[in-house]
Amino acid sequence: MSRVPRDPRDVAAVEVLGTDDLPQPLVWTFDGPFERCLSDLEDTVRRAVVLVGDVSRIALLIDLCLPTLAQRLRSGDVLQPAWGRFLERLMGYGLPAEPRVRHLRSDGPLLTLVIAYRN
After folding, report:
1. pTM of the shown model
2. What is the distance between the alpha carbons of residues 110 and 33, in angstroms, rounded to a whole number?
3. Is 1 among the domain residues?
């Protein structure tokens, strides 16, 4: 039996993981300085890997709020090298694929992490 995703954030996870019955995705939001958000996001991924127990069963989606990012950039935050280091550290966990990043044009928290996984 397959579950049709109701939330658009589930769609990317279903594409990566397949259409087997999936538990509800885990969702966290991060707001504040860009580099600190990336650090907190990485820590959350590490904890989720422990919770799920098998990194090969995880798919990540990161929603990046462009209006909030623009505010952070105006206040002096920079994207590089923090983003590059973040991706390198994240891929060190052995994830089956790089996280998908969806750029949102509506206001909201800087980053939203969605973790989909198979049982």
Report:
1. 0.78
2. 9
3. no
Q: What is the CATH number of the domain that holds 62?
A: 3.30.2320
Nearest to 33 by CA among 21, 41, 25: 41
β-bridge partners, 58: 117
The amino acid occupying position 38 is L
Residue type, 80: Q
In 3D space, the residue among 45, 34, 25, 48 whose CA is nearest the CA of residue 79 turns out to be 34
pLDDT digits (tens, 9 = 90+) for 83-99: 999 999 998 988 888 89
Q: Tell me which residue range forms the domain holding 28.
A: 8-117
d(CA 64, CA 3): 26
Residue 118 DSSP code: -
> What is the count of structural domains for the chain?
1
Asked if residue 64 lies in contact with residue 101, where contact means CB atoms within 8 angstroms, the answer is yes
Note whether residue 3 is domain-resident: no
- Assigned domain for 2 exists: no
Sole residue written with tokens 């929603």: 63
